[in-house]
Each structure stands twice: as structure tokens, then as C-alpha cells.
Amino acid sequence: MPSKALLVIDMQKDLCYDLRRKRKVERMIAPLQKAIDIFVSTGHPVFYICLSLPPGDEQFTRFGDRYCIEGTEGSQIIPELLPLKGVIIKKRKHSAFFETELDQRLKEANVGEIYLSGLQTQICIMTTAADASFRGYRPVVISDCVISTREKNKRDALNWISRYVGEVMPLAQVAKEFGSG
Fold it and tell me: What is the pLDDT of residue 181?
């Protein structure tokens, strides 16, 4: 029977401590820690997906921000999630699948369902959910374990995901599915 995995996406200092979303991240930490504990306690893998960008990446020009430059303090996972309970996978684009070893790692672990958490819902969560669906995985977004700077962007992304590529469910429902609720 295919396994399940949790993806914890972009929970890095530069992104999480940005004043535009810091408070939302703070409110999401406890549910996210619970989600991680559910997966670990039931023997399912956790993958921490991290942006790792070169200093001159073209995204900085396009978006106007500089963040998660490889090797910097800001590219590190926030201390609230330490110690890590899984593997780090580095990425250079929005989707956790684009030019990374994620697909191979999931196949090696016989994963058929991936649960998504982290930020930003309308960018990295949505593109990863779409890529997961295109590759034959069942993507499930844990609604209280994802954030967007703007709440409307989060709602719109969750609606799109549930309509076209996957499912959206609250952590309480995930906990119930795993027998941890």
C-alpha cells in the first residue's frame, strides 16, 4: 500500500520572519509542529523543502526581494522547527518537484499521497500540488498549516487546488485519518 509523506515548504528565516507574514507564521507554528509529529509518530517521512538561490538569481529582479541566498543565515529553517525530523531537499524554483530529487525520494519511499504545509499558498504550495498531481500523487493541502501574505490569495489558491489538482483539509481531519485525533 502506498505511503504518505509531509512536505514542509519554505519555512526559512528570510521568508518566515518577513514582517509581511511573521504573525501568520507564528500562529501556524503549533499546528505545523503537530502535523510533523503526526507523520513522524506514524512512520511516514517528512521532507523539508528549502529555497536555495544563487546571489544573482533572476527571481530577485522579477520580484524585487532578495531571500534565501544559498549559505546565508536567512536560508536556514526557522529554529521553531528544530530539530528536523526528516530530510532537506533544496530547490531553486517554486515547485518542490522542479529539478530536485523529490520525485525520486518519494518513489523510493513508495509514497502515493503528499500532504503540503508551509508558504506561500498561491505560489510554492499551489505549484507543488499541481506538479504532484501531474506525477500521479494525491496532493492534500493542510489548510491550517499553510499561509499567504494576503488571505485572499490563500483562499483563491486553496479553491483552485481543491477544484483541479488535489484536496484541502484541516489538520483535525488529517489527525483523524492518521488515528491521532
Answer: 59
* Strand partners for 4: 113
First-residue to last-residue Cα distance in the chain: 22
Quick one: angle between helices 126-134 and 151-164, nearest 10? 10
132-170 residue pLDDT tens = 999 999 999 999 999 999 999 999 999 999 999 999 999
Would you kindly state where each structural domain of the chain is located, as residue ranges? 3-177
- Which of 3, 6, 37, 178 has its CA nearest to residue 108? 3
Where do we find the cell 494576503? 150
CB 120 within 8 A of CB 147: yes
The runs of H, that is alpha helices, within 3-134 are 13-16, 22-41, 58-63, 102-108, 126-134
Nearest alpha-carbon partner for 146 in 132, 129, 134? 129
Q: What share of the chain is helix, strand, coil (3-state, %, to 5)?
A: 45, 25, 35
The CATH code belonging to domain 3-177 is 3.40.50.850
pTM attached to this predicted model:
0.95
User: Mean pLDDT throughout 25-48?
Assistant: 97
Helix, strand or coil, per DSSP, at residue 124: helix
Q: Which pLDDT score, from 0 to 100, does residue 103 have?
A: 98
Q: Are 31 and 118 in contact (CB under 8 A)?
A: no
Cα 50 from Cα 40, distance rounded (Å): 19
